[in-house]
Amino acid sequence: MKKLRRLWAFIFCGALSLTLLAPTLALAAKKKADVVIVADTRFIENGLLHWWAQMYNESHLTFALMTMAIIPILGCVLGIVADFFMSMTGIDLKHRELAEK
Amino acid sequence: MDALFMTMPISGVSIFWPGLIILGLGVGIIGGFFGLGGAWMVTPGLNILGFPMAFAIGTDVAQMAGKSLISTMRHGRFGNVDYLLGITMLIGTVIGVEIGAQMVMWLERIGSVDRVVRWLYVVLLIVIAWIVFADVAKRKQKERQAQEAGKDIDKLESGFEWGKKLQAIHIPPMMHFKQAGVYCSFWLPVTVSLFTGWLAGILGIGGGLIRMPALVYLVGCPTHLAVGTDLFEVAISGLYGAASYTYKGRTELIAAIIMLCGAAIGAQIGVVATKYVKGYGIRIVFGLAVLGCLVSVLLKQLASEVPSMAGLFNTLATIDVMGFVSLISIYIAARMVTGAKAEIAAKKQAAGN
Fold it and tell me: Is residue B3 assigned to a domain?
């Protein structure tokens, strides 16, 4: 028990010192130049895709916000739809036995 | 044939879109079964399909968030997610990932980042694989001993009991994670997640590959709970990663959406398969997946060490990853189908009686 306590204290102190020291070390790091990518909208015929690429070129922030909204909403919708079809198979989808072997 | 190819609006590359659905399906199955984000499988897959590396990573992170959300919802209905444990671990994960990322910048300055990261990854994967298979052997040994003594072994008994020992250290505040059946110090999951987050930050991976076994072996979670809870964390950290990559303009949302369509089906198959596979079944297949990942990382390391044969080693690494993804996906899908068939047949028989 004593040994475990010592191990626990060692892990905790190690993690704490990393938290405090690592950012200091990283402060000295050089900053790389950012590469700007521009979407080529000239050959996109589909209206929706054209609008999407145009938005990307105009504002990365709006593009990021839209993506952040679409991903979880679409995830939930697809999850519900897939769940609905899976429930039609007749499998019990609410219970499972918790066992390691 | 042209109908099978689609030009991506941001990166401008022409992509074989059914390939995206197949990739999504495979990673959905594997991710739902093991509780992984699966970046080590998807990023090379997207790269093969034609995405530049930066877009492959960003798109992968975006689909990972959505796919993990789908899997978490399904696992949640089975009662496999301990949300309190997941949120507690997020504290350590966020701090750990940030520290890891800062350390990578420091290593970049020294000029040895790739080498250090790759070798660290190799060592870590060897350790995880060893723990998994040594634990399986230990559990078998316990079973034999119990059999000889004429006793029954508890169905939740593990080979290694490190989690129980760490839970016994009472440093306030103590917390009860009811769903996982874990009563431990608040600092145990925080410290474990800080460590796993730090490793994930250094390696530039989502962290599921490290966090899932850490939840099982260090926190003492039952395997099914570790898988579900880890996916909950992957969903949140994936969303954060997606925000970061998207803001930098490196996400192809259209590709992520197409992949999600396949992943929604795959996630259902992977998660429902956990119903028919016991904890140790999941652990053994997970160990094999770790070995597959290890071989791929070693081959990539060889490619950078022997530049004249880089093409061959990179091809072999890709074949290894895609081969493992296919084989494991087929195995999981087969287990799900046989389990579901047996359950439906049993139901019909019960209704007949």
Answer: no
The shortest C-alpha distance from A6 to chain B (Å) reads 10
Q: Do B166 and A93 touch (CB under 8 A)?
A: no
Predicted TM-score (pTM) of the model is 0.85
Residues from chain B contacting residue A29 (CB–CB below 8 Å): 102, 105-106, 108-109
CA distances from B17 to B13, B57, B251, B262 (A): 11, 17, 16, 11
Q: Is residue B278 part of a domain?
A: yes
- Best B59, B77, B99 residue to mutate vs chain A (most A CBs within 10 Å): B99
Q: Residue A20's closest chain B neighbor by CA?
A: B99
Which of B156, B198, B340 is opposite residue A99, by nearest beta carbon? B156
Structural domain span for residue B244: 10-340
In this complex, do A75 and B243 lie within 8 Å of one another by their Cβ atoms? no
Q: Are A26 and B108 in contact (CB under 8 A)?
A: no
Q: Map A6-75 to HEC letters.
A: HHHHHHHHHHHHHHHHHHHHHHCCCCCCCCCCCCCCCCCCCHHHHHHHHHHHHCHHHHHHHHHHHHHHHH
Residue B256 counted as domain residue: yes
Q: What is the pLDDT, as a whole number, of residue B242?
A: 85
pLDDT at A29: 46
Size of interface A-B (CB pairs under 8 A): 191
Query: Residue B307 falls within a domain, yes or no?
Result: yes
Per-block mean pLDDT, blocks of 10 residues, chain B (353 long): 86 90 93 87 84 84 90 92 95 88 79 76 92 93 89 82 92 93 94 91 81 93 94 89 83 93 94 92 92 88 87 88 90 94 91 79
| Chain B residues within 8 A of A72 when measuring between CB atoms | 65-66, 69, 239
CB-CB under 8 Å, A11 with B249:
no
A20, pLDDT greater than 70:
no
For chain B, the domain total comes to 1
The pLDDT assigned to A25 comes to 44
Burial label, B206 (beta-carbon count in 10 A; 0-12, 13-18, 19+): buried
